[in-house]
Amino acid sequence: MRSVTYSMSMSLDGYIVGPDGSFNWSVPDPAVFRLAMDEIKQVGVHLLGRRLYETMLYWESAELAVTWDDDEREWAELWKQLPKVVFSRTLTSVEGTNHRLATDGVVEEIERLRAEPGDGDIAIGGADLAAQVAAAGLIDEYLVRVYPVIVGGGIPFFARDLAKVELQLVETRTFTHVVFVRYRVVR
């Protein structure tokens, strides 16, 4: 069965964006960017909330591509090839390569994807979407890049009303300004 992973960057105090909606503190160094590329190579489909979908459209931009370095161009190609499902209450269509708008709820979508043949993880992006998946007990692994900044509020990585979840530490890596941690949910 395909694993469901939730991977995002967060501040030391647990937020994926600050109170002003910015996440400019999470710009990775080249080693962390390579880590993200290694992660995305393990993904078979990515489920995104509307805000993350809109943010990630950046990687579809042919105009910006001319300014990217080799790693950024490689990331963009990996991202464009990846099937993506967008969850939104406000969008009626989506653009970009390999995107489709979800027709069911996220729990039903994950159940359908797990029942289909396919390789690679089912990745969750976006705190609100991840909170729904976590509440249903469907997240198998948490992949967290922790940045040494306290932002004092914003959108939390973990839903504040999440029930207790036992985790097993699987991996840690320390980079110049980031600590990467992988936890597996104990079932």
How would you explain this protein's 3D organization?
- Strand 9 (167-174) and strand 10 form a beta hairpin.
- The chain has one domain (4-185): Dihydrofolate Reductase, subunit A (3-Layer(aba) Sandwich), CATH 3.40.430.
- It is α/β, with parallel strands linked by helices and 187 residues long.
- The chain contains six helices and ten strands, in the order ββαβαααββαβαββββ.
Give the gist of this structure.
The chain is α/β, with parallel strands linked by helices and 187 residues long.
Task: Walk me through the topology.
Elements: E1 4-11, E2 15-17, H1 30-40, E3 43-49, H2 50-56, H3 62-65, H4 70-81, E4 84-87, E5 99-101, H5 106-115, E6 121-125, H6 127-135, E7 141-147, E8 155-156, E9 167-174, E10 179-185
